[in-house]
């Protein structure tokens, strides 16, 4: 898995609507990459619905959450529709197969899909959080929200500190 402090590898892959998503396009924002094994599974569904449910909380903390799996664009589109996900972008790491998961070192080459993991990238494109989760576990987003809240509070303090 990528290490905290590393520069996050840039990527360019489509979302469920076929729109290209490039990590470097989120300059100035924090990005949560939420890797999940496969669409149409119950744990992955709960993981992506949690991202959608917390979308406004992420936004208020200058962050955007992206769900990523090796599924194709049509699969992701149908799955997002079935889950009622309208705002969160679900990325298709379909070709090259698992290319982004491989860059972030969460690809399981034996099973052919990514492991369940969250990676948080700061506004300067450095990795500030990584965690892998058991396959049958929905990641708790509170750790991510707490980290983002602490960072936002620290940033505000710096902005308000008097210049000497």
From TrEMBL:
<dbReference type="InterPro" id="IPR024706">
    <property type="entry name" value="Peroxiredoxin_AhpC-typ"/>
</dbReference>
<dbReference type="Pfam" id="PF00578">
    <property type="entry name" value="AhpC-TSA"/>
</dbReference>
<dbReference type="InterPro" id="IPR013766">
    <property type="entry name" value="Thioredoxin_domain"/>
</dbReference>
<keyword id="KW-0676">Redox-active center</keyword>
<dbReference type="InterPro" id="IPR036249">
    <property type="entry name" value="Thioredoxin-like_sf"/>
</dbReference>
<dbReference type="InterPro" id="IPR000866">
    <property type="entry name" value="AhpC/TSA"/>
</dbReference>
<protein>
    <submittedName>
        <fullName>Redoxin domain-containing protein</fullName>
    </submittedName>
</protein>
<keyword id="KW-0560">Oxidoreductase</keyword>
<dbReference type="InterPro" id="IPR050455">
    <property type="entry name" value="Tpx_Peroxidase_subfamily"/>
</dbReference>
<feature type="domain" description="Thioredoxin">
    <location>
        <begin position="2"/>
        <end position="153"/>
    </location>
</feature>
């Amino acid at each position: 898995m990528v290490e905290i402090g590393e520069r996050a590898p840039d990527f360019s892959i489509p979302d469920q609507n076929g729109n290209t998503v490039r990590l470097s396009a989120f300059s100035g924002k924090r990005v949560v990459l939420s890797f999940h094994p496969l669409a149409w599974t119950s744990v992955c569904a709960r993981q992506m619905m949690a991202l959608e449910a917390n979308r406004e909380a992420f936004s208020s903390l200058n962050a955007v959450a992206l769900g990523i799996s090796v599924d194709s664009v049509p699969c992701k589109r149908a799955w997002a529709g079935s889950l009622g996900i309208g705002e969160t972008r679900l990325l298709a790491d379909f070709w090259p197969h698992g290319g982004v998961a491989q860059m972030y070192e969460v690809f399981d080459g034996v099973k052919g899909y990514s492991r369940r993991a969250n990676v948080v990238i700061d506004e300067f494109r450095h990795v500030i959080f990584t965690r892998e989760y058991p396959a049958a576990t929905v990641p708790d987003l509170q750790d991510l929200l707490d980290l983002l809240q602490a960072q936002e509070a620290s940033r505000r303090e710096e902005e308000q500190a008097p210049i000497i």
